[in-house]
Amino acid sequence: MKLRDQSLEECFTILDREIPKRVDASINHILNDPNLVEVGVEDYWTLVSFTEQDPSQITQAGSKQLQNYINIAIVCIIKEYNLPIEYAGDAATGFDYKYVGNNQDKEIEVKCSGQKDGSTIVIGNRLVKGSALLLVLITVLAFAALTSIPQLIDKHRTRIFTGLLSGAAVGVIISNFLKDSVNPQIQTKSFILTVLISLLAYSLPSAMVRKFRFGGLLFFLAIGCLVGGWLLSEIGNGPKSSTYLLTVVPFALIGLALNVGPKRNLLERNHFQRRTRVGVFLGPALLFVALGLIIPLARTIYLSLHGLKGREWAGLKNYGEILTNDSSIDLRDWSNIFTSRLFIIALILLAIGSVAGVMLGKKRGRIVEPSAASLTPSAIGVFLLIFAVLSTLRGTVINNLWWVIVVTSFSTGLGLLAAVLADRIRFESAAKSLIFLPMAISFVGAGIIWKFMYIARPPQKPQTGLLNAIWVGLGKLTPGSVGQFIGIALLLLATAGLVALSIFGIRRKQTGISIGSLFVSVPILWILYRLVGPGLGGVEEGARGLPIAKPILFVQEGPFNNVWLMVVLIWIQTGFAMVILSAAIKAVPGDLTEAARVDGANDRQVFFHVTLPTITPTISVIVTALIVLVMKVFDIVRVMTNGNFGTQVIANEMWQKTFTEFNLGLGSALATVLFLAVVPAMALNVRRMQRSVIQ
Hints:
CATH class of the domain at 403-456 and 556-695: Mainly Alpha
Shape: globular
CATH topology of the domain at 403-456 and 556-695: MetI-like fold
Helix content: 55-70%
């Protein structure tokens, strides 16, 4: 709507004078509300703890809240002073206010986003208004009409005309369901090149096998038109006529291609109708795959080859930046790997495993004897060695690799352990239900729960986070107090029990039990040492000799803050692995286990030599599924740290680059890299399922 004119300088004067007043009034309203004061204090201390760890970080919550205050203030000022604006939108879609003034080159746009229209479909990588369900039904009906109806006509010319007309009619119907924002701006060169490539893709192989059909050429011509028109064009910038052109022409060509040949006989018609029925049922699924995966993927790859706004050509520059940028892969501290405690402990364990293997091999006339005594310390040593490398090297890609290794191995291992142990207890169903329960919680909900458990309040305030409350509470145990005496007694009792279990394993020649018990006793002995010696917990002496609680900043202190985030996903996925593996264990034929026991095998031997090889395909399926899941981890990192403090992962960085920094090229490149990283695991899983079906 047209309002009275004012100069750009006058508008700036009004905004500069009024915005601070209104924003200050809004903030004072929050601070004066007794119900919100405590929340404000918590946010303040969170901001303080963030900036202490990384002063360069700006919290998203603070900036978004301030932006919200400013937007509200600007809207009020625009309405009150009747500034020259253009208004578009309504209460459902949000408000867009744009200053136009006398100089069109100086436009100022302020947006207050609201709820979006939920009736959308995906075109390329964009959400477009429309009825997705209705469009799917129309497409299915159109496919059935194109393939079935013209075949009922005897005359060749009439059948061709009917097929051409029915295809064009379907194109017109679909065009009318596409809103104005969908109209593509055809890129002439790209369109022609795509059409030619599509024609060559059919013509060259057909010429080589000497099986050329005019209908197939028309079909590939239609595919070239669809790809070149809808994937390589600027969606939303073209005229309405281009929408009709790029839907009517391809569908008309498809209708012509399906009916250009001679009329089929009864046998061919029945075969064709069976294939048509399959296509009708598969049509919606294929359409959803095309709209939800194939077309967005092609659009994303196309945008990844362009610059900041997705317009100027950049080639492989974005991919080069991902591989060479220190934020993605930082190898500058690689030499610190060899001085880390994890690396030294890993070498010691590998040496112990090697010596044990050689000694056992001499007794049995072999060079090396693989057994629990040699494999257990070697496996732990390899795992700690990986930890030493990944905790020293930094970057988004390294963090993703760390997530994959830790979450996949621990979720699978703990799930297998839970499945084996739960299979032998009386309350099996209840135990499995408790372990599986976290699967019912969303990733966002789990992230919020664990964020509250990890939260560290200022030293002067009581700790509300569970772990810090325990840590600080234990730290307040004074030497010689009853609490310290009880803690020492419990730790000594646990250590004695583990030592007894280790001796039991040695006498029963079950080296796995003995070695495992000794490894579990190591952290208990460390806690006992801290409790007796330096003191346990986060309390240190203040300036006046008063104790000051010093909580642990779980999600802020790197590099092992990544591990605390991984714990959340391990907590969720262990139940998933347990349920699948438990079903696989129960499916192991009883004849095999009974035959092994008849031959003199104990429970450990039955498990490692019968049960484990049988369920190996199930374990590999779980591992590949977890790899795909973990590679895409986003929600937990987003909720708990938003990628700060060295916890960034590819999915969250993709979101930030695309929707916060509006770098479409780099964001699309990150999305493509993430997809390519997931593809091998998905392909392996699909191939394994195909083999199982054949067998």
